[in-house]
Structure formats: C-alpha cells, structure tokens
Amino acid sequence: MTLLEHAIDAHGGLARWREIRSIDVTLRCGGIAMPLKGQPSALRQFMATVDPWRPRVELHGIGMFDSSLPRPAGMARPPRWNNDDVVHFAGYALWGYLVAPFVFAEPDDTDPAGYRAGVAHLDQSVGGEALAVKAGER
C-alpha cells in the first residue's frame, strides 16, 4: 500500500470521499498574518462552505473564492490587503487543507498527463522508504 493510500484510508477512504458534495466548517484563526496585512479581525471566526471538486469556497459574510477568477491585482504588495485579498488567500488555503490527500488520487481529464495542473504527485522509491514529490509525472 502506498503512502497516499494509507493517508486516504486514514481519512475515511476514497469511496466515502466521492460521496461528499460540500464541506461546511466553522473556523477561528489567529496569528500575525492578518494583522500584518491590515486585516486584524478578518478571519478571527467565520463559517465556510467548500466545494471539494474544484477550488471554490464561500467564506460566509466575507466573500466567495473561485480559482477560475484572477488573483486580486496588487495582492503581493505590502502592507495592506483589502477584502478581496483576504478571500483569495483564505479560500486557496482552506480548499487545499480540506481536500488533501484526496485531491492527489483524482486524475484531471483535461490534463494530457492525467493529473490536476499544479498538484504534486507522490511516488515511493524501492522498498517504500524514500518519498519523492514529482510535479506532473506519473
């Protein structure tokens, strides 16, 4: 059994994952990232609904993240973020946190290599001792 298969089994299995249509979460976030970006209370406590099949997250009362939309202009420039910057940052992060490890097991039919674009794929070496991360390789 591969490391990926172990991780998926530990999280309920691939069959159960494929039954999920959305993920609802209530979160409290802290730390210095948001205060440093001029948004000290932006993510202190919020609810979100995550689409597990594509990077789309509704941050209730904050905004909607959809990866098909471009990143907000000027987001990488310090020091202050606006609400769109917070939504983009939190949406991408939350989606990634909640769909791993399952997203690594799902091929992307639109990618000629058969993988989701930008997702690292895990392969074990001989004996399963070492782990290599290979982007876009089978």
Task: Outline the structure in words.
There is one protein chain. The protein has 138 residues and is of the alpha+beta class. It has 2 domains: 3-106, no CATH class; 110-138, no CATH class. Helices cover 24% and strands 22% of the residues. The protein has helices at 3-10, 14-17, 33-36, 83-99, and strands spanning 23-28, 45-51, 56-59, 63-66, 120-124, 131-135. The strands form 2 sheets. Strands 1-2-3-4 form a 4-stranded antiparallel sheet, covered by helices on one side. A two-stranded antiparallel sheet has the order 5-6. A hairpin with a 3-residue loop joins strand 3 and strand 4 (63-66). The relative contact order is 0.15.
Low-confidence stretches: 114-138
Count of DSSP E strands? 6
* Total tally of structural domains: 2
Strand order of the largest sheet: 1-2-3-4
Q: Would you tell me the structural class of the helices and strands?
A: alpha+beta
- Distance from first to last alpha carbon: 17 Å
Tally of contiguous helical segments: 4
C-alpha-based Rg, rounded: 17 Å
Mean pLDDT: 79
Shape: elongated
What is the chain-wise order of helices and strands? HHEHEEEHEE
Percentage of residues in helical conformation = 10-25%
Q: Biggest β-sheet: count, sense, barrel?
A: 4 strands, antiparallel
Estimate the strand proportion. 15-25%
Brief descriptors of the model:
alpha+beta; 138 residues; two-stranded antiparallel sheet; elongated; 22% strand; disordered C terminus; four-stranded antiparallel beta sheet; 4 helices; 2 domains; 6 strands
